[in-house]
Amino acid sequence: MIGILKSMATTMKHALDGSTFTVEYPETAPDVSPRFRGVHKFSQERCIWCRQCENVCPNDTIQIVTNDQRQGEQYNLHIGQCIYCRLCEEVCPVDAILLTENFEFTADTKHDFVYNKEQLKAVPWYKDIDPLAAREPDRDAWVGEGEGEVDYQ
Amino acid sequence: MTGTTVAATDAASGLPAVPLQDTVLLPERIGELTGLDGFGLGGELLATFLAAFLIGNLMLAMTGVAGPWAKRKITAAFTDRIAVNRLGPAGLFIIVADSVRLLSKELIIPENADRPAYDLAPIVVAASALLGFAVIPMGSGLHLADPEVGLAYVFAVSGIASLGLVMAGYASANKYSLLGGLRAVAQNIAYEIPLVITGMSVVIFAGTLQMGEIVAAQHETLVEIAGISIPTWYAFVNPFAFVLFLIANFAEVGRNPFDTPEAPTEIVAGYQTEYSSVHFVLIYLGEFLHIFLGGAIIATIFLGGPAGPGPAALGIVWFIIKIWGVFFATQWLRSAVPRVRIDQLIEIGWKGLLVLSFANLILTAVIVGLIA
Amino acid sequence: MSTGLERQPAVEVTEDELEAIVGDRALARDNHLNAPGFVIRPDDVQDVLKDLRDEAGFDHLANLTAQEYPDRYESIYHLRKYADPTQEVSVVVPTTTDEPVSQTAEPVFRTADWHEREAFDLVGIDYEGHPDPRRILLPETWQGHPLSRDYDQEKPQLVTLTEHANPIQPDHHDDESDTMFLNIGPHHPATHGVLHIETVLDGETVVDVDPDIGYLHRCEEQMCQQGTYRHQIMPYPDRWDYVSAGLLNEWAYARVAEDLADIDVPEYAQVIRTMGAELSRIASHMLALATFALDVYGDFTAIFQYGMRDREVVQDILEDLTGQRLMFNYFRLGGVAWDLPEPREEFIEKTRDFLDGLPAKVDEYNDLLTANEIFQIRTHDTGILEPEVAKQYGCTGPVARGSGIDYDLRRDDPYGYYENLEWDVVTKDGCDNYSRVLVRMQEVEESAKIIEQCLDLLEDWPEDERTVQSNVPRTLKPDADTEIYRAVEGAKGELGIYIRADGTDKPGRFKIRSPCFHNLSALPEMAEGEYIPDMIASLGSLDIVLGEVDR
């Protein structure tokens, strides 16, 4: 019996201390860490159309269309299909695509989630946090840099 | 349909005892107020219907608050969460929202369900609890009837619920429901006997089965501690019986640690699995009504019914507080105590509680015999 | 807190002794990167495996891979020892393409039962003498074998139900007996995911249990075979055991790929990896405890919510470190993606606060769970899994350690930074649900010890030596026909991956050895003869995650 009474006392303590672990969202917006991987933001000015992001994406979420002179025409990213792994940001040599912390996005149908480059450019920063500032010291950890053998496949 | 006698003068203080029990029962009062008692038997019947309507609504309103709102709030307090707080003041309009939602769901009836039994089972479960409230003295004049076998009536009527459970389990044509129904009836049978026998030990104290008299008999003062007079509530006189009755009551209403008939993680929802919309509402409310009925019985025979400080007109308030106390205890146990397995449950009932309740009965009889 | 069980020192078996045991049944040698391999005939399987088990002591069938080459099919039995997992041997069984029949290994190792069913299901090899040759992951009506070379994705893959058994038809298997057949799941509040258990009940007693898996089969192996080693495979292991054990899964892949391509990991990265993996383990065990409480206590129990609340703190820490709360994608081949977040002191402070609050929480769980008498009578002596039976089924992780088997890959087959840290392996002798719960709770405390030591190391690490990733070429092309099997101690047990490289930058065969798959196959042993509530509690104590069972 003692064990049962101890269990009951433990839950009663929680009931009586009045504090809650949950918050009232959306009035209280949660704090996300600066490294949180949310919706992508694309900058056509920086993009050099190297197609590294398209190649590395694990489930073919990015689609790039260029004309014969290798000038970029379309950059489509299906943010509903994306798994937010951040590999595209990691391999991009010019920081043209990066993942903001923004996780609040809605659409009416799944097809509305295919963002073209204007929509990707218009993605807002979450609470005005620039993710690159949080990751700046680590940008040199980018793969391939250094004295080792590099393979530009 | 006259009422009971009033308790005697308070021995300790010499003041005239505040009558807890009005001599007038509710049907008579309503008859007086509306002038229906001038119409003979028809008028009396109509007044009785009105009284039953009032008490039934009061109980259903309480379950309406308890089910959608209070259960969520209490569970949230135990689990460090904020529960319903958007709709209305402190989230009370969730009751309206939930009722509309539940009643608007599609009524899905399995193909092989045994129709009359399938439809009647929820009604039996809910109605048996409501019937029990007829003889409970709730204070402030809200007492519908006071037969001389009141306590036996309450036990008998609340036992009809097991019939409802087994009907629900068998008629649903679903193996999970069958398992749930069989477990329910095994559990109810096992714990009915300790419940009744412990109730009998209270009857030995009070000397009568009449609910009004039992309440009146608890009005005397047991002892004076620091100026506060502790009344002769049978919970203080015989706490052992009180605990036994509480445990047996939790098993009867199917609450943790004895909620095997509707164990959600084992047999989905037990006997309730195939019920939706109105049927489900009836079973759901019926379950809460049974908890409140159990609380009402405990309040009446162990906690002095509507007794409490203040004028007699506040009796209903104290009564409701006591019922809610029992409800709160069920929610507390639900958050902290695991459920026992069905064979362990039967063992505890037949070997543990039965022996203890018999011992309690014999002990009570001996003590009362010695004192008297 | 190890038990007093003496760890039997394993007898070192040299390669010559292995050759002597296999004898002339070996047609050829086919060495894998970590184990000597012997090619044998399909009808010698049972003899060779039995000899290896009885004479050489290889009592753990870790993995059974099936694959198809242009000219043959192959089943590869990878054996290890519970006493010393660094000793491994592979038995390769080739069969012809037109009639791939091979002898079953089930009489020697019970765990081969489900593995061979999967090999038949996905690749198409028939196992002669198998007691139950049904498909396991794909539905019964599936046509073809997806991982074989001649699988045509354009053709219809299912036949209609009119040509197959109607699943909702009431069927009376045996009108004479008084047992009842009950389908538990796939829609059920207690199966941890979509799991279908076909039970035969005699009253409330369970007579027969047959788990039916495959509802969450997502072709992970095939998807990994279509991704490059360097980058594209790494997000996928997060999704096998998705309940926060993501970093442990990623470590399995990182370990096997690094051993395959001979990549070194800097020491600093190893420390970070160890810390992150142990945080993942804590989160996973919290969830296991919480859902076990749900199974035993019923809904609305407070323990589930407290477990979630505690796990939330771990997820916040991992979010600061990796960027996501559940699907981390943090490890890279050669290290980790990035260093601790700036400012370092804040992150270390936050983790230390969590570790300081952990003993109080564990005490709370003790008050609520282990000290509770009703919980004790529910979980003592239920779900008994004897150690010999567990070894036959290939059970690893807390399930095995709760039966007294002292097997933990972090200590026995060391990787990461574990051998330089002070910690204990927790084993209990009870073999019942209660000991498994206790093992998990105490493992949380051991993980906290490891994290504490890692934090101390990371704090004092000299600033110019903080390399998080070694130099790895952007494309990895391991040599063709190299095969390797490596495992790590995942949250649920030994999570292993077998990779065969075919000279391109994508794996030729990627086979995942899932611990939950093996643990779940032991459920019939644990549940038969007991009551339904005990079976549900046993299922909870196995702590399966369907994402890992079905892949």
Automatic annotation (TrEMBL), chain A:
Presence of the UniProt keyword Transmembrane in the record: no
Species the sequence originates in: Natrinema ejinorense
PANTHER family (UniProt xref): FORMATE HYDROGENLYASE SUBUNIT 6-RELATED, NADH DEHYDROGENASE UBIQUINONE IRON-SULFUR PROTEIN 8, MITOCHONDRIAL
Domain 4Fe-4S ferredoxin-type: 38-67, 73-102
GO biological process: aerobic respiration
Source species, domain of life: Archaea
UniProt-listed Pfam families: Fer4_7
Example GO molecular function: metal ion binding
Keywords on record: 4Fe-4S, Iron, Iron-sulfur, Metal-binding, Repeat
This protein's name: (4Fe-4S)-binding protein
PROSITE patterns registered for this protein in UniProt: 4FE4S_FER_1, 4FE4S_FER_2
Matches recorded under NCBIfam families: NuoI
Entry GO terms, CC: membrane
UniProt keyword annotation of Nucleotide-binding present: no
InterPro entries named in the record: 4Fe4S_Fe-S-bd, 4Fe4S_Fe_S_CS, NADH_quinone_OxRdtase_chainI
